[in-house]
Amino acid sequence: MDSPWDELTLAFSRTSMFPFFDIAHYLVSVMALKRQPGAVAVAWKNPLSSWFTAMLHCFGGGILSCVLLAEPPLRFLANNTNILLASSIWYITFFCPCDLVSQGYSFLPVQLLAAGMKEVTRTWKIVGGVTHANTYYKNGWIVMIAVGWARGAGGSIITNFEQLVKGGWKPEANEWLKMSYPAKVTLLGSVIFTFQHTKHLAVSRHNLMFLYTMFLVATKITMMITETATVPFALFEDALSRMLFGWQQQFTPCEKKSETKSSFNGTGSSTSKPIAVASDTVKKKHTKKT
Amino acid sequence: MDSPWDELTLAFSRTSMFPFFDIAHYLVSVMALKRQPGAVAVAWKNPLSSWFTAMLHCFGGGILSCVLLAEPPLRFLANNTNILLASSIWYITFFCPCDLVSQGYSFLPVQLLAAGMKEVTRTWKIVGGVTHANTYYKNGWIVMIAVGWARGAGGSIITNFEQLVKGGWKPEANEWLKMSYPAKVTLLGSVIFTFQHTKHLAVSRHNLMFLYTMFLVATKITMMITETATVPFALFEDALSRMLFGWQQQFTPCEKKSETKSSFNGTGSSTSKPIAVASDTVKKKHTKKT
Amino acid sequence: MDSPWDELTLAFSRTSMFPFFDIAHYLVSVMALKRQPGAVAVAWKNPLSSWFTAMLHCFGGGILSCVLLAEPPLRFLANNTNILLASSIWYITFFCPCDLVSQGYSFLPVQLLAAGMKEVTRTWKIVGGVTHANTYYKNGWIVMIAVGWARGAGGSIITNFEQLVKGGWKPEANEWLKMSYPAKVTLLGSVIFTFQHTKHLAVSRHNLMFLYTMFLVATKITMMITETATVPFALFEDALSRMLFGWQQQFTPCEKKSETKSSFNGTGSSTSKPIAVASDTVKKKHTKKT
């Protein structure tokens, strides 16, 4: 147990997120907010609202996990140091003269470094969420997965919800449906760490943290360099979906019948789309199969 | 106290909901979800989203009551058995080959049986909510009514809210206004059981549970067989509303004036509708009166 | 410490809000609800929904602060006396024959008295929120400011949110952005009382409560009499914003560039508005400066 590998991973798993990784996380989140159209104008017109949105971008995952566990959503405000850190980053990002921060951030190496460090914080958040949920529900492994997922990738849900309230976001069903890549990879990590925590996965946590973080950083940087949005899970997902749901494609006629029956209960306008979607879904599966 | 009637009702009030009544509740809820247009297509495209919506349909009332009492909304996820039960019912309902479940459910007797058993679970939920709220607020009878109501009929509110977030539901004021029949009957039951719990109603709980459940099942099955949506409370409601608010119909001129005054503060477009509504409300009351 | 001034302010700070000031607060809130177009028609069609909205108008701030601190939002329902008081005021306001209450309230002196007493309750709410939040987080002064602000001015947020769910409110970004006068003055008071509570402000609480309440009442009545909506903070805000963000107006070219860059990431339709807003913001600042 004293192999250099174990020492390395153990030292890695004991790294403190506080000063530098948190800064990278805040920087990436605030820059993503600034990239949104109109964000700069909002910051000029009403700095308080822009600051609030920036805080939601930085601490959204923690807020969502607090809501799901009925803890005070304001808890993140009790950590004055992190609040001041994120606020100062928001301030220099939006109000730095001549927009130096954005110009510095526009260089690819800086973006790669910041994005990689942000992915490291994701692992810490998932582990923290899983461990925290386990203190509430001893064998509630579904809760552990959900909380780890929420803390790791819940920021987008919170910000979408805020934009919905602010009216800046017109929700569409398919936006809500398709999971983004971070949501998928965070769900995978939450499942893995939950099984590790419930001793169903015979691997030490620090090794798992190291490997999962390396996987996160590698995929993220690869996607940023190649500027591709294709999720490396496509094959895995396709196999899983075919294993779970795909074995019915031979029953397509029956399935079609049920779809038609279900569509009879709705107005023609709203049902025309889903049926088309379903049919081209079936088509896609067929093409994949052949 | 040893009359056969008491023994019957006592045994009935001790019936466990777990295996069969819960299954009926999940089946009815998931079938109601599948009846929605596009639900099948969503289940094919994104099973996770469909599963989440199905869980909200099955456990919505409990989630709402947890939110109202500041308990973890994820608590329902900690009950792994019920989650797996509901998930398997969702799975076989949506992905059963040749759609056997829907075809079996399309027979009226099956629907009647399932709907009746679901109504039985409603009584248990109301009683559980009232008792649970009483542990928080000793003499907060308003809270007890609200929590019992939320746990018994809160599923529709949660699912409407979810559809609002998903953008699949365009809310309209009158949709929010008119209470559905389950909401009304659940409110009545919540009031009754609250008064029984606060000893204002001199009847033993098991008798009340038996009678209320019989009333629920009878009205529900009658409404399903006769395919009518007329609420049996119409007369009672009319009498109550006339007793509380109806004695002003002789002051209609004054009432009209106030409406006109209040309408001056709004934009002409939005006020035209309410006034029309109010006027035809007054008309309807008059016609009822005559 | 026994000066008559201290005795006066001490006695004032010990005034009980319960019977009269609460009644004034409920009356002002319910009258503001009744002024909304269509509120009277809703009260006639569905009294329960109107009663629920009225309760949200009366207790919205407390509900929001409960949500933020993960306390039961139903706690306000446990105070049966206040609920019955507010309900009776809602009843006589909406259903009083010949609309006597509205006619009596339409006299300016009555409105001034009620509005002044409502402002007094605002001070009590802020102090209560700050003190309550301090029991949770010893040195979380940001939380104390937020909770005091929420309890003092959170009613509008809750009611806007309810209208959003009911579909009666089409949100617009700028509605959310600009803070109303009560929100600003409540934020100021929350900051003041938080600093007083954390001993950063060397003034006794009862003096501060007296002075802040006098300031609230004076500004409110002045605004009502002169029927002006100009906030007396305009100069202060302008100086603060120029001190914090204004020193970059010499970098307007750089700022413009950044705005253009940020606008490239959005669709042309949605970005055209914010840029215009930003540019006229810059213009306005220039005109202010000259």
Plain-language structure description:
Three copies of one chain form a homotrimer. With 290 residues, chain A is mostly helical. Chain A has one domain. Chain A contains 16 helices and no strands. The first copy, chain A, has helices at residues 4-13, 20-35, 39-45, 47-68, 75-78, 80-95, 100-105, 108-136, 141-153, 155-166, 173-177, 181-197, 205-225, 234-244, 252-264, 268-289. In chain A, helix 2 (20-35) crosses helix 8 and helix 4 runs antiparallel to helix 6 (80-95). The longest helix of chain A is centred in the middle third of the chain and has 29 residues, at 108-136. Chain A is globular and about 55 Å long. Chains in contact: A-B, A-C, B-C. Chains B and C meet through helix 9, helix 11, helix 15 and helix 16 of B and helix 3, helix 4 and helix 6 of C.
The share of residues in helices of chain A is over 70%
> Helix and strand succession of chain A?
HHHHHHHHHHHHHHHH
Count all strands of chain A and give the number. 0
Low-pLDDT regions of chain A: 249-253, 255-290
| Average pLDDT metric of chain A | 78
Beta content of chain A comes to under 5%
Morphology of chain A: globular
> Roughly how many Å apart are the termini of chain A?
49 Å
Structural class of chain A: mainly alpha
Count of discrete alpha- or pi-helical segments spanning 4 or more residues of chain A? 16
Q: Name the assembly state.
A: homotrimer
Radius of gyration of chain A (Å): 22 Å
- Our count of domains of chain A comes out at 1
Biggest chain contact: A-B, 50 and 34 residues
